[in-house]
Amino acid sequence: LVASPEIYNYLEEEISNLVGTEACVIFPTVTLISIGVLPAFVGKTGVLILDKSGHETMYEGAKIARDNGATLESFEKDDFSSLEEILKKHESNNRKVIMVDGVYSMTGDYANLPKLVKLAKKYKALIYIDDAHGFGVIGENPTNEFPLGKKGNGIVKYFGMEYDNIIYVGGCSKAYSSLAAFVACSKEMKTFIEAFATPYDLSGPCPIASLSTLLQGLNINKESGDNRRKKLFDLTSRAINGLRGLGYDVLNKTGFPIISVLIGDTEKLIKTANMLFDEGILVTVAPYPMVRKGEDVHRITITSANTEDEVDKLINAFSKVRVNKIDPLHQS
């Protein structure tokens, strides 16, 4: 006999309760969800509508669906006029799915869910939200005291919305540092996914060790998550203000702990990354063609385990880059 360990059932119930859905299906990764669930949703005749700024894994899943016969359309982030034109074009198709990030992985921007949901309901489309970065960080009832919200239950709850026409995908490798991901949905949709999303049957399961770390992470979230997120926001604001004070163009409008510093030139990007590393700072480089030409950035991720002294060290390292006259091409 083949069966899932009991921890699966327990975690799926815990996550469902946290995000506020009827049910939840755990997969090993968000990538497996995208390449399995998206083709299952639209079959051979449906329409997938991709936000061009969305994560590459959604595009990979959409290409599989397209190769099976589905239609793939795309629109620029926040271009709701173009999105509505596409929805009108396919108004008679009953299998339409709009694909967006909840929190965009390079800028920390939030998807404009209120506008997306309004359009999706008008044209009877589903919204597939990849909230790999948002889950565990942003959540319900944001206030001045808790700008990221509470509970870390994701972008939908951050906006105080329901899941009527939303398929919510969360990743656990970011905030929870665990090899797991999930689809939060209705019980009916869970049954559909288990039956028709190929990776659910044919890929390997999550290691029990990873599920155990996720379980402990959820316990920590209950005990001290909101205070950790408050600290996280404060540290992020300190970093953003410090970098902007040095003249750097920082691509962050939300205070989410993804900070992209615009350099604008691949050669300078690599050179400054090495200089920062020599100062004890490891940044993620995003050169062309990972991003558009002239939009090369250093991507910095702040965690609640960081300290004010470490953030000050980061700012000081970037100041030394400026002193050595290896300046970004674009300055604020």
UniProtKB/TrEMBL annotation:
UniProt-recorded name of the protein: Polyketide synthase-related protein
Residue ranges constituting the Aminotransferase class I/classII large domain according to the UniProt record: 8-318
Keyword Transferase: yes
Entry cofactors: pyridoxal 5'-phosphate
Organism: Candidatus Roizmanbacteria bacterium GW2011_GWA2_37_7
Transmembrane domains' residue ranges: none
Source lineage: Bacteria, Candidatus Roizmaniibacteriota
Pfam families assigned: Aminotran_1_2
Alphabetical UniProt keywords: Transferase
InterPro entries: Aminotransferase_I/II_large, AON_synthase_class-II, PyrdxlP-dep_Trfase, PyrdxlP-dep_Trfase_major, PyrdxlP-dep_Trfase_small
Superkingdom of origin: Bacteria
GO function terms (MF aspect): pyridoxal phosphate binding; transferase activity
